[in-house]
Write the structure tokens for this entry.
Amino acid sequence: MMNTGYVRPRTLEDALAFLAENSGKTRIVAGGTDVMVDLRAGTLKTDYLLDVSRLQALRGIEIIGNDLSVGAAATLSEIYNSAILEAHAPALQKSAVNFASKQIRNVATIGGNVAHCSPCGDTLPALAIHEARAVLSSPAGERQVPIEAIASGPYMCALPQNEIITRFILKPATVAFADFQKIGRRKELAVARMSMAYMADKDAEGRICFFRFALGACTPTPQRNHRIEAMLTGQIPDAARIWEAGRVLAEDTIAVTGRRASAVYKESAIQGLFMRMVYPLV
Amino acid sequence: MDPKTVHIEFTLNGSPRSLEIPGAASALWVIRNLIGLKGAKEGCGIGECGACTIEVDGKAVNSCLMLAAQLDGADVLTVEGLASEDGLHPLQSSFLEHHGVQCGFCTPGLLMSTHALLKENPHPDHAQVSKAIAGNLCRCTGYRQIFASIEDAVKHNSGEAAQ
Ligand SMILES: Cc1cc2nc3c(=O)[nH]c(=O)nc-3n(C[C@H](O)[C@H](O)[C@H](O)COP(=O)(O)OP(=O)(O)OC[C@H]3O[C@@H](n4cnc5c(N)ncnc54)[C@H](O)[C@@H]3O)c2cc1C
Ligand code: FES
Ligand code: FES
């Protein structure tokens, strides 16, 4: 604790300059809910903590033209209470509802959730169905990276050390159906063993005309499942069809994670969770 | 300036504070060990029990997970700031009256989570109370007396419980 410094630059430019100068010995901190746990456990050793939580460039949730922009330093409580997200990215708003505890939601940020690159990050499946791109800043400028490319494997963040995530650009969607579901050991404060998000719309005849789905936590990186999306789009939803899509999803997931002893539980849990989440469509 | 020590200024329970702290110190460590207020407790140290809950700018946070450096400029309230010269805060009285306190280890955290909730929503229903204190564990009471304490305080709340 005594050997770690703390800096809180006033502007993004100053923060990027500090990071460039002290690359390799600086850890970004926002809400600190992952960083503090790692510091305490001794698994994180760093010369400097660079606090980005108050940078104006990382704040705010807004519609800009055709895009929905969510600042990397937006807290889970801000996401929970955002009317803009409820209207334009409802699954993301729902992912904040059972996230950790009130105390943690009040400080934990979406940028930290993504950059921590744990496969169980609750915001990841919702970001994936909105085809979110992370905006990364460095002294060289800005670039955008699809959310699925950031987490290249559990806890193996593909971010180079001199970049700061400033915001996420989502494709907004106004849909009649959307949800996020997870299974943990208990309702609050549980790390998800399995999580999923979807959004959908039906046309006048009751056919599914739009369907987006992503799975998190059980695969090494959260991912959209295009096969399930294609299976259900254009269909009149009924219980049997959704049950069948859930079976295919379970099969796909086990194919990625390998058939371990837990597969029997996982297979039926995935199918059951999918059924519970998507059933309102019927 | 050596950034390994950080100078911070904030308001603690209504009084201005100014101190030098180690850069990676937690808010809980500074409040307990440098300032000497022992109300906030360290249960788990990793965000799971809520015994360390304090209010920062009106919001309940786990002080074990917050950098003390992040208190700079903030308005901070700990359980020591609840009571006034006129006596206990109505929430505290309600916890006593309804046996919401057994060993008392969880109590400061529960009081702060509830206090922050009542600021946001003076008349929460059972589900809203439950959601607000889900991050506060109690090993003694089984929570029934805690809900009774909070719900009675809510019933009598004409605004003063959030003060
Ligand atoms: C008790 C407990 C319960 C939890 N429950 C959940 C849960 O239900 N669901 C869930 O998904 N997570 C959960 N978490 C994990 C954690 O709260 C989240 O991952 C949170 O979103 C992290 O955000 P933060 O701002 O606190 O990150 P920090 O701890 O500040 O940072 C996390 C990582 O991201 C990096 N980082 C932060 N911001 C940026 C940025 N703008 N640019 C680049 N890198 C950045 C940091 O360097 C660090 O490596 C829980 C944690 C605890 C302690
Ligand atoms: S000591 Fe902070 S949550 Fe347990
Ligand atoms: S009264 Fe003992 S932990 Fe709650």
